[in-house]
């Protein structure tokens, strides 16, 4: 399994797809990396020679990936929170940041539903305890 930028890339996938397993390398900039490293995109990751892996490593080192990129993103979010911007407040409250609706969707950010207000009749009868008269 070739190891590039501290990540074991999958052997069975094409190099073009396997490189996208590295955080910060997407479908768009993988073409530029492969062109710079002079590596065939259709070649499987297990078939890469050690010199090709080294060239890919050098090409990927020029862009911000993995730990450095995660740190930069985290610092940017902390800066937004610290200066009190709207986006920073949305991050702090755990709500969608980019203007999405929250009345019905946004389950990923807001979490599991919590019932607030009146219960339905069936649920109310389940919770009532029978009284002896």
Question: What do these coordinates show?
Answer:
The protein has a domain at 3-62: Helicase, Ruva Protein, domain 3, CATH 1.10.8. The longest helix has 18 residues, at 66-83. The protein contains 7 helices and 2 strands; from the N terminus they run ββααααααα. The chain has a two-stranded antiparallel ribbon. The radius of gyration is 25 Å and the shape is elongated. 13% of the residues are buried. Helices cover 48% and strands 3% of the residues. It is mostly helical and 133 residues long. The N and C termini lie far apart (75 Å). Part of the 30S ribosomal subunit. Forms a loose heterodimer with protein S19. Forms two bridges to the 50S subunit in the 70S ribosome. One of its GO terms (biological process) is translation.
């Amino acid at each position: 399994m070739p190891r590039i930028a501290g990540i074991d890339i999958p052997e069975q996938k094409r190099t073009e797809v396997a490189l996208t397993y590295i955080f910060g390398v997407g479908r768009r900039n993988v073409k530029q990396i492969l062109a710079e490293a002079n590596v065939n995109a259709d070649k499987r990751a297990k078939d890469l020679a050690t010199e090709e892996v080294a060239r890919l490593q050098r090409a990927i080192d020029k862009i911000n990936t993995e730990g450095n990129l995660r740190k930069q993103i985290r610092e940017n979010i902390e800066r937004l929170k610290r200066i009190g911007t709207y986006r920073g407040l949305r991050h702090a409250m755990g709500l969608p940041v980019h203007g999405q609706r929250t009345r019905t969707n946004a389950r990923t950010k807001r979490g599991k539903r919590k019932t607030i207000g009146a219960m339905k009749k069936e649920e109310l009868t389940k919770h009532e305890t029978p009284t002896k008269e």
